[in-house]
Specification:
Blueprint: E1 3-7, H1 13-35, H2 41-50, E2 61-68, E3 71-82, E4 85-93, H3 102-116, E5 121-126, H4 131-139, E6 143-145, E7 156-161
Parallel strand pairs: 4-5
Antiparallel strand pairs: 1-2, 2-3, 3-4, 5-7, 6-7
Length: 163
């Protein structure tokens, strides 16, 4: 059993299924922490419909899917914000596949995609309750920095020079 990573159109059915899984998990975590409940079905559908992945389309972005033993196991996106700066987006590995190296593989593949887009640095934001993500970024050489956006759900911002 092993991982492979490949580009995927942001609007494919496989990408949509992973987006749903990603958003369900991060939304449920937030609501459980702050309101003691899971995301309601109507809330989930409204938020999924409100977000698009079109920012992850070439020529200024890329969506990559991680495949584990031929099955979709995770995703990561990268988008070019400005000359030299790319943003890491939507890093996700299905829960049953965590601990098998997929997260690091996806982030490294996104770094390569960012370099191919002309980026020399990668930035990202995340939340305090996503402790696994913060640990992954630190392990991969991302340094915590001051805020680079005003996302109301972000409490941690990171940067890495891609060299």
């Amino acid at each position: 059993m092993s991982w492979t990573v490949a580009p995927e159109p942001f609007d494919s059915p496989v990408a949509a299924a992973l987006w749903r899984a990603y958003y369900t998990e991060v939304s449920d975590r937030w609501y459980l922490l702050h309101e003691g409940r899971r995301t309601g079905p109507d809330e989930l559908e409204r938020e999924i419909a409100a977000q698009t992945w079109n920012e992850l389309a070439p020529p200024r972005g890329q969506l990559l899917l991680g495949w584990y033993d031929g099955e979709p196991g995770g995703c990561v996106g990268v988008r070019l914000l400005s000359a030299g700066t790319a943003e890491l987006k939507r890093v996700f590995v299905r829960e049953e596949l965590r601990g098998k190296g997929g997260g690091a593989l996806l982030v490294r593949a996104a770094e390569e995609a960012a370099r191919a887009l002309g980026a020399t640095r990668m930035i990202l934001d995340t939340r305090g309750d996503l402790v696994e993500a913060r640990a992954l970024y630190a392990r991969l050489g991302y340094a915590e920095t001051g805020a680079h956006n005003d996302d109301p759900y972000a409490d941690h911002w990171f940067r890495k020079d891609l060299g």
